[in-house]
Amino acid sequence: MEGTVTFESDLNLKATELRLGLPGTNESEKQTPPSVRSNKRALPDMNEESRSKNYSSVTEAAGHGDRETAPPSKAQVVGWPPIRSYRKNSFQPKKTEADADAEATGIYVKVSMDGAPFLRKVDLKVYKGYPELLKALENMFKFSIGEYSERDGYTRSEFVPTYEDKDGDWMLLGDVPWDMFISSCKKLRIMKGSEARGLGCGV
Amino acid sequence: MSEDDERATDLSGGGIVSSNRTRCCGGSVASDCPSQFPDQVLENVLENVLLFLTSRRERNTVSLVCKSWYRLEKQTRSELFIGNCYAVSPRRAIERFQKILSLVLKGKPRFADFNLVPLNWGAHFTPWVTAMAEAYPWLEKVYLKRMSVTDEDLALLAQSFPGFKELVLVCCDGFGTSGLALVASKCRQLRVLDLIDDDVMDDEVDWISCFPETGTCLESLIFDCVECPVNFDALEQLVARSSSLRKLRLNRHVSIGQLHRLMVQAPQLTHLGTGSFSSAGDPAQGDQELDLISDFAASKSLICLSGFRDILLDYLPAIHPVCANLTSLNFSYASINAEQLKPVICHCHKLQTFWVLDSVCDEGLQAVAATCKDLRELRVFPMNPSEDSDSPVSEVGLLAISEGCRQLRSILYFCQQMTNAAVVAMSKNCPDLVVFRLCIMGRHLPDHLTGQPMDEGFGAIVMNCNKLTRLAVSGLLTDKAFSYIGKYGKLVRTLSVAFAGDGDMGLRYVLEGCPKLQKLEIRDSPFGDSALFSGLHHYYKMRFLWMSSCQLSRSGCKEIAQRMPRLVVEVIRDRVEEEMDDAVEKLYMYPSLEGPRDDAPKFVTIL
C-alpha cells in the first residue's frame, strides 16, 4: 500500500486521505464530458487559451503490463479516443436559443463595423479589459484602432469603437470602467471616424 | 472521397519531365511542315483522348511522357486536386493549369480533428480563392477539407464565379451563416451545397431564405452539422421550388413533424437526413406516425438514410418501407439497442454502408452480419468515448461481422476489448479489406483473453489483406507489429499509430518497408530522431508526416530540414516554455515546392 504513514517533518496526508479506489491507484481523472459548446461566434484567442490549458498528453513507456496491476493513472489525454468534437458534442441535448443564452455564462453582444457586410458576436466575459477587447476586434475585422487616450479618444485611427448602452446612448469605448461597461453594453459598433465626432469622453 | 493523392513534385513547372524523351512529338500545334503532319494528328488524337481521362494518377503519368504530352495534358485538365494546400502555391498551380473547372483542396492534418493542432495554425482558403477569382472565372466546383474558410472568402467566391455549381465543405471552420447566405443568394446556378462536419458559426442570419425565389437548381443540400435553427417555413418553400433536389440532410433543429411536411414536398429524394426524428417543438398530433410511414412508402428512390439525432423510438418503424432499398444507413447518432435495431436491419438486404453506435452491442452486429451480405463499409462509434467505460461491442461483434459480411472493404471499429483471434479471423474472412481501422480505446491494452500484445492480429491483416491501403492500429503493440507492417504492407498509403511500439525500430520498419506510404500520423509513441532519419529516402514521396508526443529533438529535426531542402519541417508548440526545450512536442513535415510558408503563426517554427 502506498503512502506509509510517517511522522516526520510533514504530515503525510495522503496516507490518511479518504478516497475511492484500490490502494496503490492514483486518483483517476476521467475525461470530463464535453462541456456544452455554444456556437455563438467567439474569438479564436479564447479558444486557444482554453485548449492549451487543457493540454496534457501522457507519454507512457510501453509496458507489457497486464491488467492485474494498478492501471496507469488516467490523466486527461487530449484527442483520445480519436472522435471528432462534432460527434462528441452531439450527445449533448440540443440547445434552443434561450437555453444556450441561459446556460452560457457569457455576455454576448453583436458587433458591427461600418462598411463590413458581416455582423459578429463577442462574449464580453472573455476579456479582462479594454485592451484585450480592442485587440480582438482588430483581429476580427482586420483593422487597427491605435490607442485610446482619455483626453482625445481614438486619434490615430479612422475607426472608432463605440457601443450602445442600456439607455440607448452611443458611447465611446473606454469611457467608463470596464465592469460598468460590460454590464451596460448592448451592442458594439465600429464607426468610421467622421461619424464618431461628437462622441467624446464625458458624453 | 478516395484517399488518392498526388506527389507535390507533379505540379512543378515541368521539373520532372525527362528531357530525353521529347523526341516523339513535334512542337507547336499549327505546323506547316509536312514531315510534322503525323505529329499534328497525334496531338489532336491525344487531346481528344485526354478529354476523357479524368483520373489524376493517369493524367500525371501522361504528363511525364514528353513535353508535348505534358503541355496537352495541362491544357485539358479540368480538375485540380491538391492534397496538401502548402505543397504548392496558388500562383504555381494557376500557371500550369489554365482551364480548371473544379478544385479539391485539403488543409490541416487529420489530427486537427482531435484538437491536436492549435487554432489558427493555417490552411487558409483566402489566398486560393483570391488567386482563382482572377484566373478561373469559369470555376464550377470547390471541395475543401480541413481548411479555414472565412465569410469573406465565401463572399468572394459567390461574386467571382458566375457559373458556380458545387460547394462541398468538410471539416472546415472559420465561417458562419453570413457566408452561407451570400453563397445561397449569389450563386444562382448552385446545384450542390454540402456542409459536412463543419463548425459553422451562428451569425443569426436566415440563410435558407436567401436562395433564389423563382425555382433553384439545387440537387443536394446537406446541412446536418449546422447547429443553429433554420427558418422552417423558408426551408419548406425552398424544397417545394427545388424540383431537382435529390439529397437533403437536415439538422437536428428540424422536428419529425417538419420532416413529414418536407417529405411530402420531396418524394423524389434519394438521400435523406432526417434531422432530430423527435417531436420536440411539434404540436401534439395523434396520427403522426401513420403519416410518416406513408411518406417513407412514397419515397421510392430513397437509398441513403441518416439523421436520427434525437430519435424517438416509437417512430422508428416508419422507415420500414425503404429498408429493402437502402444501400446506406447511418445510425451513428441514434442510441438504439439490439432489440430496436433488429426489426429494421432484417430488411436491409442491399445495405452496403452502415454506420452505427456501439449501443447496439455485439448482438446488434450479429443481426447485421446475418442480413447484410453485401456490406462494404462498417463504422461502429462509441456512445461513451472514454477509456474506462464498458463497451458493449467486442471481439464477438467483429468476428460475427467478418463471418457474415465477406465483401467488407472498409471498417472503423471502436471497442474496449479485443482479441488477436478475432482480428486474424477478419483478415481471412474479408481478404478484400482496403481500410482497417481498429480503435481499442484503452491505451496499451493487450488481447484480453491471452494477455498478448495485438501484434499478431494486425500482422495478419497486413499479411492477408493484399489490397490494404489504410491502416489504424491500437492496443498494446510491440515493434513486431511494425515489422509485419513493413514486411507485408506494400500498398499501405495511410497509417495511424497511437501509443504503440517499443522504440525506434518500430518506425524504421515502416519507413523502410512501405514504399507507398503517403500519410503517416503518429502520437505518443517512443520513436526518436534516428528513426526519423531512416525515412529520408522516402519523405519527398509523402504527403505528410505527423509526430506528436514522441521522442524527437529539435536538433534532430533541424538536421532533417537541412538535409532535405524541399521538405518543410514545422515544429508546433502548445506552450511558450517549449521554446526553451530541445524536445519537440509536435512535428509536422511535408514536401513543398514553395519553401517555408509565410502565414505561419507564432507558435509554429519552421526549421
From TrEMBL, chain A:
Domain PB1, first and last residues per copy: 106-193
Residue segments, region Disordered: 1-78
UniProt record, GO biological process: auxin-activated signaling pathway; regulation of DNA-templated transcription
Record has Nucleus as a keyword: yes
Keyword tags: Auxin signaling pathway, Nucleus, Repressor, Transcription, Transcription regulation
Localization per record: Nucleus
GO cellular component: nucleus
Domain of life the protein comes from: Eukaryota
Pfam family membership, one: AUX_IAA
Subunit text: Homodimers and heterodimers.
PANTHER family from the UniProt entry: AUXIN-RESPONSIVE PROTEIN IAA17, AUXIN-RESPONSIVE PROTEIN IAA3
Main function: Aux/IAA proteins are short-lived transcriptional factors that function as repressors of early auxin response genes at low auxin concentrations.
Family from the record: Belongs to the Aux/IAA family.
Protein name: Auxin-responsive protein
Annotated organism of origin: Tetracentron sinense (Spur-leaf)
Organism lineage: Eukaryota, Viridiplantae, Streptophyta, Embryophyta, Tracheophyta
Automatic annotation (TrEMBL), chain B:
Keywords attached to this entry: Auxin signaling pathway, Nucleus, Ubl conjugation pathway
Residues in Transport inhibitor response domain copies: 99-144
Name the UniProt record assigns to this protein: Transport inhibitor response 1-like protein
Domain named COI1 F-box: residues: 39-78
Keyword Ribonucleoprotein listed: no
Pfam family, one: Transp_inhibit
InterPro entries linked: COI1_F-box, Leu-rich_rpt_Cys-con_subtyp, LRR_dom_sf, Transp_inhibit
Gene Ontology CC annotations of this record: nucleus; SCF ubiquitin ligase complex
Pathway: Protein modification; protein ubiquitination
One GO term of the biological process aspect: SCF-dependent proteasomal ubiquitin-dependent protein catabolic process
Organism: Tetracentron sinense
Domain of life: Eukaryota
Entry-linked Gene3D superfamilies: 1.20.1280.50, Ribonuclease Inhibitor
Compartments reported by the entry: Nucleus
N-terminal signal peptide: none
